[in-house]
Amino acid sequence: MSNLLNGIEDILLMGPGPSEVPDEVYAALGTQTIGHLDPYFITIMDEIKAQLQKLVKTSAKLTLPASGTGSAGMETCFVNLIEPGDRVLILINGVFGMRMQDVATRLGANVDTLEFEWGTPVDVDAVKKKLDTETYKIVAVVHAETSTGVRNPVAEIGTLVAGSDTLYLVDAVTSLGGIDVNMDKWGIDSLYSGTQKCISCPPGLAPIAFSDKAVATLQGRKTKVPNWYLDLTMIINYWEGHTRAYHHTAPINMLYGLYQALDLILAENLDTVFQRHLENHQALVDGLEDMGMQMLVEKKYRLPMLNAVKVPDGVDEAGVRKVLRMEHKIEIGAGLGPLAGKIWRIGLMGHTARPENVRRVLAALKTTLGR
Ligand SMILES: *Cc1c(COP(=O)(O)O)cnc(C)c1O
User: Fold this and answer.
1) Which residues form ligand 1's pocket by a CB distance below 6 Å?
2) Which of 146, 179, 192, 205 to mutate to test the pocket of ligand 1 (most atoms within 8 A of CB)?
3) 11 & 99 share domain
4) In the predicted model, is pLDDT for residue 1 greater than 70?
5) Which atom of ligand 1 is nearest to the CA of 142?
6) Ligand 1 pocket check: which of 19, 71, 154 to mutate, most ligand atoms within 8 Å of Cβ?
7) What pLDDT, in 10s, does the model give residues 191-207?
């Protein structure tokens, strides 16, 4: 074969991301490239900021898509807010909380953690106890822990932080576009996401939002932001103001794709989108339980877009995933860390969350497990 791309098969993406991409988004990605300082492009950038503000429910002016995947969003939030020695509390119940700890530690922060069993949510009372006796510059938590399928109580933790000098930093990579994310109401100061989960755009951009309080912290830094590429004090001059200044060349076509993906979500209506995720999640769980399988997470903490199901005793976890991928052309995810070999992670993210996909994965699992 002369061109490797001709060998790409139509695989149904039902893992922990990337998710299915609508045709309109593929078309947007292939639109004519224009200059990153072209006045028409700046009009599109301004619209993307407005779309993101609607999606994360914020009036925060500093809301924009950072260049890079969700992890670049994580890095952007931490690197712009942390100075060496700052006290940071990270709430950990999965892979992405651990990644936050790694990122904050590398920046020279003085990091404390509270850890909770994987598959269970962060315990608000434990956080309250900690905050009653200790003071932190930042408290950070993952809203939707993609490694386990747990929804963390972001609103409740927000009430503990509210009214203090502490900044509240939230990972909304998997939650955004699939369940409600309400930045202003929940008192979130710094939030990041990614495009390839429930936004259903290919990976490559990381929406971020900083509250006025976070911006004041950024502007009051004693030291320069230690990362040039992600330094918001410079990036802001490209995304805001009457005259725009070059920082790095924006990933122009990725931004077309994000614009189109956000347009689809907002046109469908946010509440309708969340309801669609919930209904397909319920149908999937019902189907799995009918087959005698058990979910990892207790019902009230389950994420609709990431379904962690226990691998039945005696079943070859990786073997089943291989058959799904090779014979049924469906990708699902494996467990990570302590859950490796013990669960499958079935994604119903964004455009993937549709009844025909739920039926297809259930039918494929049934045939495969029946062997
Ligand atoms: C996927 C994910 C990330 C990392 O995003 P990348 O796009 O892989 O860099 C961070 N946090 C959560 C909760 C995620 O699901």
Assistant:
1) 17, 69-71, 74, 96, 142, 144, 146, 171, 173-174, 194, 203
2) 146
3) no
4) no
5) 13
6) 71
7) 999 999 999 999 999 99
Helix runs in the chain, H state only: 23-29, 39-56, 70-81, 95-106, 124-133, 154-161, 212-219, 232-239, 252-268, 270-290, 317-326, 355-370
Ligand 1, atom nearest to 71 Cα: 9
| pLDDT tens digits for range 288-334 | 999 999 999 999 999 999 999 999 999 999 999 999 999 999 999 99
Over the stretch 98-135, which tens digit does the pLDDT of each residue have? 999 999 999 999 999 999 999 999 999 999 999 999 99
pTM given for the model: 0.98
For residue 295, the cross-strand partners are 309
- Contact between residue 81 and residue 190 where contact means Cβ atoms under 8 Å apart: yes
Question: Do 198 and 241 share a structural domain?
Answer: yes
Residue 101 and residue 160 in one domain? yes
CATH code for the domain of 63 = 3.40.640.10
> Which one, of 128, 133, 75, lies nearest residue 106 by Cα?
75
Burial class (CB in 10 A: 0-12, 13-18, 19+), 345: buried
Which atom of ligand 1 is closest in space to residue 174's alpha carbon?
15
Residue 371: the pLDDT is: 82
Write down which residue in 248, 266, 284 finishes a domain. Answer: 266
Please state, rounded to an integer, the average pLDDT across all residues of the chain: 97
In this structure, the answer to whether residues 136 and 187 fall within a common structural domain is: yes
Q: How far is the CA of 6 from the centre of ligand 1 (A)?
A: 28
Distance 142 CA to ligand 1 centre (A): 10
67 C-alpha to ligand 1 centroid (Å): 14
Domain that holds residue 27: 23-266
Contact between 123 and 93 (Cβ < 8 Å):
no
Ligand 1 centre to CA of 132 (Å) is 31
Residue 169: what pLDDT? 99
Indicate if 66 and 107 belong to the same structural domain: yes
Nearest-CA residue for ligand 1 atom 6 is: 70
